[in-house]
Amino acid sequence: MSRLDPLKDWLLDIAIMNEMPAQRQNQLRTEISQGIGRLVQYLQNNPSTTSHKWREVCPELFFLGTRSSIIPDPTDIPNLKLAYRTLIHHPQTQENTLVQEIILHLLAAAEEASLIPFWLELLDINRPRDILRHQRYTLALAALSRMAIHKGEDEAFEALRLATYHPNPEVRGLAVYYWGQAYVMGKRPFPPTTITELQHLATNDPAFEPRYQARRILLAAKESIPRDNKEGTYHFRVRPKGITGIFRVIALKANQTMHDLHLGILGAYGWVEDHLFAFYMNGRKYDDRFAIVSPYETERTPHTNEVHLDELGLIKGHAFLYHFDYTRDHLFEVTVTAISPHTDSGPYPRVIERCGKAPQQ
Question: Is this model's pTM higher than 0.85 or not?
Fold first, then answer.
């Protein structure tokens, strides 16, 4: 199961689980219920927030809980919420974070409208050194999208819409994606008001991720997308990830493509184009929600030769990831250092600043 986008995995798993005999599903549901009961009882009897061996407390959850198509008994939902709200205050060990994820998977499978306030509540949790923060946001918003797809709940669509205006830009970007997926994967037409809001987000949100996702959803809706800085240039500082003192600054025209950026990076470092590659526009490796990939990939889109720089919604200071050669795993951090309204004569891409000797390919 993907830790990056659970929605697609959930929908695939549902189709598989529908083939399982009802008797077996009921048996699994009973085992999960027993594990939930043991977990809640243990938390009540052991209120200390010191580390615990959660796998020993509720083995049923660890064995079955990520089977997200097993719908929990409705009577277990209050206990699941109680357990989650308690666990977030315990040390974030590997087992603790895993049991938190299992609980959220189970609650998502319930697809209950009564859980909408709980999902929105999770978007406001902000604890120091919170290693589960991004995954919590993802699971909460994916759960709302799943509910909208399967149940057609107007409240779920509205909750996703409201989340696109959340003060946290990371939440806004994910909310736009899952709001759009609720229509695309649910095969529902986009209301004109939704298109208007997406157009507003694509142009006016101050952060990159919501702007980018709004534009991708507008394309899926077969709507035009804004083109920024059409006559200008973008400057990118490209440095090998984890290496200090080495970088190149590359200028490209706004109407050039991400494939031109790929070629510009290789040329700036004197490397040869002989491997697959991808850009991850949120800086998270393997996050297909934000991936722009080599034209030679057949299972993922969009392709770099199809995406122009001026349609991305780039802002100054935004950083993303360039992944070249999936075997050797070369990673580069790419940062937008300048957005100029002017274009000089001569060829682009062009290297306008160098620092340090290029590493070997």
Answer: yes
